[in-house]
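The freezer alarm interrupted the setup, so I double-checked each line after restarting. Inputs confirmed:
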Amino acid sequence: MYDFSYCAPTKVCFGRGSEEQLEGLIAERKCKCVLLHYGGESAVRSGLIKRVRWALERAGAAVVELGGVKPNPRLSLVNEGIKLCKDKGVDFILAVGGGSVIDSAKAIGMGCVGGGDVWDYYCKKRVPQGTIPVGVVLTIAAAGSEMSKSSVITNDKTATKCGVNAELSRPVFAIMNPELTASVPAYPTACGCADILMHTLERYLTGGETLKLTDSIAEALMTTVISSSKAVMRDLSNYEARANLMWASSLSHNGLTGLGNDGGDWCTHSLGHELSALYDTPHGAALTAVWGSWARYVYKNCLNRFHRFAVQVMGVRPNGTCGELALKGIEAAEEWFAGMGLPTSIKQLGVKPTEADLKLMAEKCAANNGGSKGSCMKLHVEDMLAIYTAANK
Amino acid sequence: MYDFSYCAPTKVCFGRGSEEQLEGLIAERKCKCVLLHYGGESAVRSGLIKRVRWALERAGAAVVELGGVKPNPRLSLVNEGIKLCKDKGVDFILAVGGGSVIDSAKAIGMGCVGGGDVWDYYCKKRVPQGTIPVGVVLTIAAAGSEMSKSSVITNDKTATKCGVNAELSRPVFAIMNPELTASVPAYPTACGCADILMHTLERYLTGGETLKLTDSIAEALMTTVISSSKAVMRDLSNYEARANLMWASSLSHNGLTGLGNDGGDWCTHSLGHELSALYDTPHGAALTAVWGSWARYVYKNCLNRFHRFAVQVMGVRPNGTCGELALKGIEAAEEWFAGMGLPTSIKQLGVKPTEADLKLMAEKCAANNGGSKGSCMKLHVEDMLAIYTAANK
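Predicted 3D structure, all chains:
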């Protein structure tokens, strides 16, 4: 095992009607001017945005609104938000939505402190020095950004998707009412389930040492995500399943499921990000489209972990060689993806990259990761191209 | 499942040599005067206290020392600490030790703010209003106080052991170097393992609703504690086992393993506290001495949970009725205790209470809990007496 530091200070308010705690949380912080940041029309239509605005006003805060965040959130809107916050003297950002809205809010928060171009943080030219505090009202279980230190933004001028990890960007509070996710349709729900599992799987399938307790917690989380995903796909209004997925989304990316490990692999995320950057595909679907091809490319270098994943998480019966079981585990994971209607190839994503497109993605993926990436196996540009090519079926 | 709030903001610095981070942590907080609070002679003899004192001084803080904390920490020493902190203008308390030292430090911290008698907080007459911040250098894996909101103190004038739960008392940082626990002898190590398991078991064996994800994480933690305890009892210097137990101690009592549950049962703790208050017995051993008798008294009211515990945690083969399996699980847990050299009865604790003593403990136990306690089964004074009597063999 490796040494680690860990601090996940986000205050979680979980359960039915928990958004009613918003007024108290904002009043307690004595916020003067809040940026109310959100995505598309569904939160407006449902009346949630209106209720949130009232709560902010009752708490004595002025409210500035910036909606329109899209999946794979754009740098252009982030820059608009930064300007707005500076112009209006915003001292708190409230993200009402899922990972895209929260990541965008974090970017705005960090961009308001220290000057310069916020994109510098995302392409690792500078390290963020501070942030306007961010709070969350979560409306979809997926990215885990509500407790994480991560933010991923797409530069819409260059079609580049990059992430920053900064402890200071962990939200100060997260309001999580599973009822608010009951209206999320099947496909984005499935994408969310895949994203939740993948945040732990990237940490779990690693070539380095691990901590036994972390491994067993990771397995507990992944098996719960799989069983809850099946329950929620049968009945989208299943509160218990929605609650388990929502809490799993937070625990899967707040760091807990990788403590004592080497940091994890994260190649599936990097490969998926290039697909999303080029084709604007949903994040969770981009991950499942490449995961199987990545797994078959690397598993022999990391046989024990893939074997363990097969038996402990996917429930593969332990009859066979390590290699056979590892492959059965990969197949079982793909069957789970497919069972939720998620793609297991790039073509199933509905896009048709040419060979030149695949080469471009591999080159950008390598460049965005300093030439190579991975823990199960260190991938270079030619490996990335081979995986994209295998996945392009 | 129930709604919940959760915030575990303690910064964890985990791994070999992590006490070297102390200077930076204290300097960052700009502490002027630190109370260095510790227990017996072992931390002095090992040179740890000297190294810690130097680190505090290098960080620019004046240092006031108060050693001598004993297991089942005493109110008299807490009051001495409060006076010392007020006299010297202490603005930070560093606890170097295990649960007793940390609980004592929390009591001193809370007692310095708001005036009045600190014992009022422990007998629920008043609610703590603030605290001097507390940091921890952990030297034994057991109580989990390094991340918890709990503090348990014994009033040495009245032989009463009571606890307070206050979010504000969670330590601000916890330095956890498993190497520092390698010198803990077998018996206190075993007591620690029992205490760690019990903090999750009290939350897990409950009559109320639960959250699936929490259940599976609780099971993952308990199975890891059991396997790591066996490894550490075979070789007390096993770093991996010590590390798993240390991290389990924190996760088992920081709240994580009970989220969405009804708060848990906690009768074993209450019954054990009276034994420790009267006979000054080690906390972990007092718990194992009464647990089996408690479990056999209540399990029929909570059959599904005991059944699940037997199969998922104790590895009982699922052949038999629910009731049979539940009993086998109780037996297996007692075998685990006994295998570590821990008592499974009050007599094995080395004390010989009379019938009058048992009655006194039952009456105090009921009185300290407002007349009754429990989730698997609500116990009143006659139930408590019956359990003490059954355990007194």
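Quick read of the result. The two ends of chain A are 38 Å apart (CA to CA).
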